[in-house]
Amino acid sequence: MILVTLAIAAGTMLVMAVILSSILGWANKKFKVEMDPKIESVLEILPGINCGGCGYLGCSDYAVAIVTDNVPVNKCTVGGEACAISVAGIMGVEVGEMIPVRAIVHCGATTANRLQTNQYRGEKRCAAAHQVAGVQGCTFGCLGFGDCVRACNYDAIHIVQGLAVVDYKKCVGCGACAKVCPRKIITIAGFKEDQIPTVACSNRDKAKDAKAVCTTPCVACKACSKITDIFTITDNLSKCNDTYTALNYEEVVKSIEKCPTNCIHFIGKPSEL
Questions:
Q1: With contact defined as beta carbons under 8 Å apart, do 76 and 165 qualify?
Q2: Do 168 and 56 have their domain in common?
């Protein structure tokens, strides 16, 4: 009796499986959406990293946007110029100007530069430490627990003496590090030159308070902005705009020399020896 019952149950399951398979097969053919061949061709060229650096959720979404919405073909920072040229060939469009983008860490304070720190016993992640008051005196600076390091698929950022440091030989500007930084001190910017100047500070407190927690803060003294309009002062903090080119090199060097706290630096690919 038990064997008969099991046989009936097995037979019923088999019949249901056959019926459901038939229904799914029919639905797949009935409701199949044909993909534009151009989308498939573009998708084959894109790197497939799905980093989101282009501004879309992944390579598939970007490929669809290129073909259906005519968005620029040069948004893939990972694929770079070669990728853009190939996609442009498929779409029959011009590549347009491509300025490499890279990550910038707007903090230059290593562990030794931080004047007020406390032992942190919580989860060793920036996102967790950011929620705890008093981890370090500067509430704007790098926490140094490496969330950005874990997010990077290119081994392009590391924690050195408690500070996130970008390896510009490897950075592709995908933006993964910037997305996970809880203090938003990492940005993605265009590099018109291999090396560009930056203000390695994010502290918007007044000079007295900034100097109380760090030895290398921006104190908004305006020395840099008086030399060149590459730098502007906003919210007690100097910022470098994106107009820098090699033609401005000499005046930027003068600004660096005038900075009383040495918080302005050139960053980017190391010079070839």
A1: no
A2: no
CA separation, residue 186 to residues 104, 200, 271 (Å): 5, 10, 23
175 shares a domain with 56? no
Euclidean distance between CA atoms 25 and 244, whole angstroms: 59
pLDDT in tens, 116-161: 878 888 999 999 999 998 899 999 999 999 999 999 999 999 999 9
Three-state secondary-structure class, residue 211: helix
What percent of the chain has pLDDT above 90?
Answer: 71
Element (H, E) at 81: helix 80-91
The alpha carbon dihedral of 127, 125, 180, 233 has a sign of positive
Task: Give the three-class secondary structure for 50.
Answer: coil
Distance CA 268, CA 134 (A): 32
Is residue 251 domain-shared with residue 223, that is, in the same domain? yes
Residue 170 lies in a domain: yes
